[in-house]
Amino acid sequence: MSFSRNDIVAFIEVVRAGSVSRAAEHIGVTQPSVSKAIKRLEDEVGVPLLQRGVHGVRLTSNGHFFLETAKRFEAQHFELVRAASDLRARHAGLLRIGITSPASDSAAVRAVSEMVRRRPAMRLKLTIGKSDALNAAVEDGELDLAVVPSYPGQSLSCAKVDISEDHTRVAVRVTHPLARLPSVTINDLTPFGWVMPSPQSAARRHVFQIFERNGAPMPHVSIEADYTSEAAMGVLMATDLLAIVPTSVLRSWLGRIQPLPIAELDIRRTQVLLSHPQATWTPLMSTFRDLLLQQRG
């Protein structure tokens, strides 16, 4: 082969950045170097991989096919380098973890904290994102593990280990008009706006499916907030908006925020640990998994 791993890295970064100049800046090389790397790849495979235009570059149909192989190549190279590092120092190395909840009392954050105490020589990269995006990152080899909520009927492509179960419920401030009613139905929610994650969120999709199954008007989303943060709960406490809130978070806001007794929207979900189906488990990955499982007891 006339191309190198650096050429593969340049190609993946050009696709990610959408332009040769931005890719060169991100990698820390010159723009001509990136252009030469792409040319070497295209010369080797014998077909164009990228289309150049005034608005940047985009993949050709052959480029889409090649990108999947390039990602696997890069992920395998990363695994080889890290395996060699782990053999040199089993307590050192890099662990890349994705989580959906940045709450300080979440199981994932507690496990991360314990990892740092036990393995002071390790390096840890922590990514906070949506469950679907984290699942894709683990599948592409960009993350080693991810802790995400899994909702009934949700499809995740990665291998899963069940960690714990919790519930999410419709929550309002204690002085909300609905809080004064003796009973509340899903249709009673129609006049009120919602604090909800973005449309790409599995949680939002699941809630909308519940409304659709019950023939109720779709929720009107007034504020998009991907995480049940202090700011989101503060807005909920100061307005008549509604939100789907985990029961673990509700416990911290008792007396200010309360759940509504709507059975259809009492949603059970499972916290799962995601890994690549063909992953070679490193000592750091195994330790993190074990720390999470210990919290089940």
Domain module count: 3
CATH topology of the largest domain: D-Maltodextrin-Binding Protein, domain 2
Tell me, rounded to a whole number, the average pLDDT. 87
Q: Look at the helices and sheets and give the structural class.
A: alpha/beta
Instruction: Give, in order, the helices and strands.
Output: HHHEEHEHEHEEEHEHEHEEH
CATH architecture of the largest domain: 3-Layer(aba) Sandwich
Number of helices: 10
Instruction: Label the overall shape.
Output: globular
Distance between the termini: 53 Å
Main pleated-sheet profile: 9 strands, mixed
Number of strands: 11
Oligomer: single chain
Helix coverage percent: 40-55%
CATH C-level category of the largest domain: Alpha Beta
> Uncertain spans, ≥5 residues at pLDDT below 50?
none
Question: Rounded to an integer, what's the Rg over CA atoms?
Answer: 23 Å
Question: What report would you give on this structure?
Answer:
The structure is a single chain. With 297 residues, the protein is an alpha/beta fold. The chain folds into three domains: 5-84, Orthogonal Bundle (Arc Repressor Mutant, subunit A), CATH 1.10.10; 90-164 and 270-294, Periplasmic binding protein-like II (D-Maltodextrin-Binding Protein, domain 2, 3-Layer(aba) Sandwich), CATH 3.40.190; 166-267, D-Maltodextrin-Binding Protein, domain 2, CATH 3.40.190. It contains ten helices and eleven strands. Helix 5 (107-118) links the parallel strand 3 (94-99) and strand 4 (123-128). It is globular. The mean pLDDT is 87.
